[in-house]
Design a protein that fits this description.
4 helices, about 0% strand, about 75% helix
Length: about 90
């Protein structure tokens, strides 16, 4: 689980404007942070099926947001992929 300070830092890093908290980039970055935390948890707890199910839901949600961003603005899509090191 991300702390409030960690969320604020992610939002500050990826926001597009002063009061932006819901753009695709911010949502993808927040989901990536949660996915990374759950992945680390699952490395220690291999049989935690409920967490694995939640992780798959988060990955699916992030994939949908990335697909949307790619269809709207390819430059923003490539920037967020490089910054978060999601694919590669």
């Amino acid at each position: 689980m991300l702390t409030t300070a960690a969320k604020a830092e992610i939002i500050k890093t990826y926001q597009r404007g002063k009061n932006d908290t819901g753009s695709s980039e911010v949502q993808i970055a927040l989901l990536t942070g949660r996915i990374n935390n759950l992945t680390a948890h699952l490395k220690n707890n291999k049989n935690d099926v409920h967490t694995r199910h939640g992780l798959m839901k988060l990955v699916s949600q992030r994939r949908k947001l990335l697909r949307y961003l790619r269809s709207q603005d390819m430059q923003r899509y490539t920037n967020i992929i490089k910054e978060l090191d999601i694919r590669g």
